[in-house]
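Recall that a protein's primary structure is simply its ordered list of amino acids. Everything else, from secondary elements to tertiary packing, is in principle encoded there. The following example makes that idea concrete.
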Amino acid sequence: MKKILFRKFRVLILMVFLIACTMHIMIDLLPKLEKRAAGPGTAGNSGCSCSNRPSEEPQSWGKQRARTGAESGWPNKHTLRILQDFSNEPSSNLSSHSLEKNTGPADKTEAFKRLEQYSQHGNNDNKQFIQDTNTNKIEPVMGYSKLNVLFEHSLYKIQVPGLTEEDTLFNVNTDIRFNPKAAENPEWKNEGNDEEEYVPTGEPSADSYPNWLKFHIGINRYELYSRHNPVIDSLLKDLVSQKITSVAMKSGGTQLKLIMTFQNYGQALFKPMKQTREQETPPDFFYFSDFERHNAEIAAFHLDRILDFRRVPPVAGRLVNMTKEIKDVTRDKKLWRTFFISPANNICFYGECSYYCSTEHALCGKPDQIEGSLAAFLPDLALAKRKTWRNPWRRSYHKRKKAEWEVDPDYCEEVKQTPPYDIGTRLLDVMDMTIFDFLMGNMDRHHYETFEKFGNETFIIHLDNGRGFGKHSHDEMSILVPLSQCCRVKRSTHLRLQLLAKEEYKLSELVEESLLRDKLMPILIKPHLEAMDRRLRVVLKVLSDCIERDGYNNVVENDLDSATANTITSTR
């Protein structure tokens, strides 16, 4: 009898163990089963090359090319690795993160070598770098466009010096033929007309590259993108319309950010909406614990473009369906497990991060739609290394301690004697960044980056602007300390600031018009726009005081050649 009971007990234990294993396997497979149940349009199958509205079901292509030896579904890892090698999140300070496991340097370098090898088949005597093919004017939203008038001004027609191979981030020219077969991809998604098909014979020209790749190829020593480059407007449209095929959390950082991959293999950094347009930063919040605002990222790109810095990667607003475009396509289990339905029947999630990632600070849709900003990735660090610099005027990020620059009025003299600020334009570029941050009210500029290939003679990339536009009722004068201490500015910057202070080129009206092109308009409320005009007058007053005290030639650095300077002077 005892033996029978013992055997029954052993069988019971074995059954419990098998049930537990089965449940564990089912939990792991649940996300994949949900995707399959949702239909072919939600997985990695070939679908419409541009996303529909989040509330609509995605439509399949009117035409599909015959597949040769490739099965429907998610591309293999090798394909993704080759194509994603050109992408990296714009807000990374120290390292590059990928949706796949980190690949070795040899794998990533091989991707770029393949492109260089294709260039050898072309005519090397007639190399042409991918630049502006035309000077398209911005389409006016309502008849008369102040932006078009601004961009016709001589200050916005200053040409960059002639480019050599050392001045371009990638030595890629229009002779290159990017062959999708090199990435083992039997079909290349068409970004434009759904009805149009790629000719299967021959190799596509540089014009058929996806817009994110054209953006990367166009980066040079002097600018992130050139003026009126039609690729930028096309890339902004892609950020809004391209189908999202994969989502993962960005590691590091204080607040939740998502890395989104599109059907054309481009990637972007998604910052979800945390505050309404009307909400200001609470007065008791420290600058380092403030929310990151999605609309600040969007507005920063447009402001940077109007100031003619062109140092912010393209950013666009998008309304995202949290179920179909995040939960159903993510492979990140940690992210997937944080989704829940709120008492108000809205879809919510919170992810993992240092601040505000809990059920109390969950991001909830209405019922499953959420706004967010999408910032195009910069090239992967394995292909285009970036150097991270500590901002000389970095804040202490401490509740009680102050930074050295806050207590030493002669701090700039020490900076001027320290490389790379002792020669070249780096100090003047920091002054540009200071003015840019003050106009936005951004106190969170602890580091900045440059492309390593160009050494110290290149521009500063204006990354991570989410803590701007927090307070329209307060002008934080401490942001302007670098300018008031150093009393240095480029002549081109000074002239543009003076131009934007005029009634016919009013900064707030130009930014407002530019922001009307974003899908999430209005991006900024009126008080924030008016605050920019007020802060612009403050900047000009600081520079005027510097000039009165130290003299014009000691404050304003002439970065214009004599012919350009004479033309600008005659048109003023």
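The CA atoms of residues 91 and 156 lie 28 Å apart. The chain is about 35% helix and 10% strand.
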